[in-house]
Design a protein that fits this description.
By secondary structure, the chain is mainly alpha-helical. The chain has 6 helices and no strands.
């Protein structure tokens, strides 16, 4: 099960695969997929979404099995042994920022803000 510290490490490594300035969902509003979309000519044809890449870096592949349209919270509900609730919330922040058309660096930074705020409570 991915805990929060693993989630933080995996998300950073996932960002590093494409770089902080990479935009997976230009313009926002598009559907993100956990794995590359065959035949897609944009960024979505090159790589999976940020969370999908993070999960794959951990050796996980179940998120690619007909679950590529689920939000990370729904995915965590379906695969209850995949990640802790805190890790799912951390990933959700990054997923939401990415889905809004922001860079992977911004997505990572916002997830880290959530982490730091939770420590302050």
């Amino acid at each position: 099960m991915i805990d929060i510290e693993q989630a933080r490490e995996l998300l950073k490594k996932a960002v590093d695969t494409q770089g902080r300035e990479f935009v997976y969902n230009p313009g926002g509003g598009g559907a993100c997929k956990y794995g590359p979309v065959p035949g897609h000519t944009g960024p979505q044809g090159t790589t999976g979404c940020l969370v999908g890449v993070a999960l794959s870096l951990n050796g996980e592949e179940r998120h690619l099995e007909d679950r590529h349209d689920l939000t990370v919270m729904a995915l965590a509900g379906v695969l209850s042994d995949l990640m802790s609730e805190y890790a799912a919330r951390y990933f959700r922040v990054a997923q939401d920022v990415q889905d809004d058309g922001k860079t992977w660096g911004e997505a990572y930074d916002r997830a880290e803000e959530l982490y730091r705020r939770s420590l302050a409570q």
